[in-house]
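Lesson 9: reading folded outputs for more than one chain in a single document. The general rule is that every protein is listed as its sequence immediately followed by its structure tokens, and records are never interleaved. Here is the first one.
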Amino acid sequence: MPDHTEPAVATTPAATAQPDQHEPGLSRQLSNRHIQLIAIGGAIGTGLFMGSGKTISLAGPSVIFVYMIIGTMLFFVMRAMGELLLSNTGYKSFADFAADLLGPWAGFFTGWTYWFCWIVTGIADVIAIAGYVSYWWGSLPLWIPALAAVALLVGLNLPTVKAFGETEFWFALIKIVAIVSLIVVGLAMVFSHFTAPGGAEASFSNMWSDGGFFPTGFMGFVAGFQIATFAFVGIELVGTTAAEAKDPEKNLPKAINSIPVRVMLFYVVALVVIISVTPWREITADRSPFVAMFTLAGLGIAASVINFVVLTSATSSANSGIYSTSRMVYGLADQGDAPAAFGRLTKRRVPANALYLSGVFLLAGVVMVAVGSSIIEAFTIVTTISSLCFIFVWSIILISYIVYRRKRPHLHEASKFKMPGGVPMCYVVLAFFAFLIWAFTQKEDTLQALLVTPLWFAGLGIAWAVLRRRPVQMARAAAFRGEQAAADRD
């Protein structure tokens, strides 16, 4: 009779290999201050700075409800992931418990899709960086800053992991200070009845005085979910990073439980202030409303400062993304799910080959801004693809939780960090994800990306059909089947 306090992670190669990939990684070189600042900074993404302009133009003031709904649903995803990670300290990521609970195929699909998620997100960040640079040098061809961004990102990730953590610490601190400052300045403008030259008076009444909270109707409200969903991609890194800390039982719950506070402060309050200062009809889809707010108020220098902040935010997001992708490919190689060359480390214990692979794929962002006619069109396409792939990863987390509750109920009973709502809430959130996918079909640009995304999963299916016949994969599958049979007998 197996001991379920140590699940199949001990016998499944997919699971045992995963922790090894972190030996030179976050859990060994990042201090608690790094982890906490990275976690907080992760709540402030490119989707908020760059994409919220389009979201507001589509949904109007109802955008605040869009962010609140998505944030609430993803909070439950993070709670499910938190309980799973704490159920076995051998788990280092959701790819581990997916392979353990659902089978080796799930670890393969989840690992590679998560890599793809961050590659596409990185491409979106490169596009955003090019757009921010054009604020100062509008005549500069967009592909130049995009190419320079890719080179910078690769260069930032070649040193040690500690250098990466320190860079992200200061990037996150800049974003936090900027958002809080924007909220304070915006509130001061509202309470002082500031009026922009030729513009409307700053007032909370701007939230409802022009068509109410839902001025574009229900379908406009629905359309706001696409870019808003992208604003939350990578939120699962909060749990994964905390789980790699020295004290996951303390740091993981703290990081996850602070998600609602971050959503309310960085998304809801910030957007309420922006729409109060700048009437929603004056916010354009192709500009960051954070920059536009100060420009409209005639504060040109402040607008330049904010533009610099959102530029560093996009660079920060892309920096984390390219690091995550290189680590994921390294882990996949360690498991036999990727070519062995990507599993090699430099003398500084950096997976350089995996890093270069991710850098090459980021060049797609350079191509898109070079041949495209609109920054926001390119941004919308790649963010839709990224959002859909992240929805797949989040769904795998929920499905793993459902299986965990069925197979290991005693671990749930012993858990000190139980998911609120349990299995029924998992089905509620999965239904919400189905709604999101339907929402993506309602606009032509998002529909095009939706129709292209299945090609990725088709390619993965073909690759898995080939890889599953290799001896190492057959051994993993046999170990999984043996564990499941033993669990059934128990």
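And here is the second record, again sequence then tokens.
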Amino acid sequence: MTDQRVRSPRTGATASVAPRKASPAVYRRRRLVVVVGLLVVVLAVVFVAGFVWPGFWRAEQTPQPVPTVTVTAPVPTPTVKAMERASDETAFQKALPSSVLQFALGSLGEAEEPKEQGALEAWNAEYTDGDQGEVALVAGQWATSEEAATAAAAWTKAAGEADREGDVKVGKKVVGQYAIVPADGGTAVVVWQNGTAVLQATGPADTMEDFYAAFPL
């Protein structure tokens, strides 16, 4: 601490005078000024952030999106046993499944009419759920996909006016067309082509689209 020297007005002599210490009130005022200054800086940063980043004001209040939960119903299965299959079936016969959703294969026999239309082979199949649901299936195979497309168009026209239709795809490749035609008595007819195969299923209107979608051929 540096002494301060003062000269006496009477004698002209000089003497050392120690500086006075600041009072506690001064220190409190200084601390208050520092605290207020820091608060001003913080508030300035908050306001600047609010104008530069509009979402800043809502950052703590924005509700998090609720994840969507998808509930998938179990795939129905038959409650009745399918018929015994012959050991000498053709490859096309084997492609016809023993069950589709809740329907089990009840009978399988040759179909003559598609052969008269040029099919190499054709089959009539009956599927049942053991209750009131019955699906009659006709399946035929042609030599080329062009011949199959012609047959599918003829079957669809014979069934009536379609209210739904679209592409049949295997992966991303279009292999034919399908059509769903309303019929009498709460039934519907679905006709579809898959390459050289043409199939027609007739059964309960509320299940035919699912039946077609689940059919492996």
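What the second record shows: The chain has a mean pLDDT of 83.
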